[in-house]
Automatic annotation (TrEMBL):
InterPro entries: NAD(P)-bd_dom, NAD(P)-bd_dom_sf, Polyketide_Oxido-like
Every NAD(P)-binding domain range: 7-194
Protein name: NAD(P)H-binding protein
Stretch forming the signal peptide: none
Pfam families named among the record's database cross-references: NAD_binding_10
Length: 207
């Protein structure tokens, strides 16, 4: 499979690239800087992205909102809109989005991001990611998209290949912890690229 990976050098993106390549897939890395052997394009620049993803089987969007205290939703939504337009222009149908956990429900109608315990420092980017998911659900019905939310905590760790998949509900273990390694998140994402079992819906992955 020929995969275009936007955000290929980030903590999650770099692990997705490694996992996909380890399975024999061809990965075109795309970043804003063009560093580390990647192609250069801003995700919000639909024309530039279309030129780079044309001829690929799938596009993975792995970008995060700004964490410098600036407004988060604008840049993230612009990236999402740019990529949707680029896929249409390039004739690529398959899109997998690295999403956030804040929009996952802990009870019917109650999102993780809306709980009093949610870390204030992550609230802005979590709300932005929730907006992006809502926009994809509303606007991307012509594309074969999948939005993959991690557990509440995702960080570098071990690749075990053992995890659970869910839908819109936050997954926690027997001790109430919700976590996944970035390596196992990458396994789940590449699995979905290969199998396309969750087209036009959100899934989540956790231990």
């Amino acid at each position: 499979m020929k995969i275009a990976l936007i955000g290929a050098t980030g903590m999650i993106g770099s692990r997705i690239a490694a996992e996909a390549r380890s399975r024999g897939h061809e990965v075109t890395g795309i970043t804003r800087t063009g560093n580390e052997g990647t192609a250069r394009a801003d995700a919000a620049d639909a024309a530039a992205v279309a030129g780079l993803v044309r001829g690929h089987d799938a596009v993975v969007l792995s970008v995060s909102p700004p964490r410098d205290g600036s407004e988060a939703s604008g840049p993230l939504l612009a990236a999402g809109r740019g990529v949707l337009e680029a896929l249409r222009e390039a004739g690529v149908k398959r899109l997998v989005v690295v999403g956030g956990a804040g929009s996952l429900e802990i009870a019917p109608g109650v999102r993780l991001v809306d709980t009093p315990e949610f870390p204030p420092g992550y609230k802005g980017e979590s709300l932005a990611a929730a907006e992006q998911l809502a926009e994809i659900r509303a606007e991307a019905g012509d594309l074969d998209w999948t939005y993959i939310s991690p557990a509440a905590v995702i960080e570098p760790g071990e690749r075990t290949g053992t995890f659970r998949l869910g839908g819109d509900r936050l997954l926690s273990d027997a001790d109430g912890n919700s976590r996944i390694s970035a390596e196992d998140y990458a396994v789940a994402l590449v699995d979905e690229l290969e199998k396309s079992e969750a087209v036009r819906r959100r899934i989540t992955v956790a231990y």
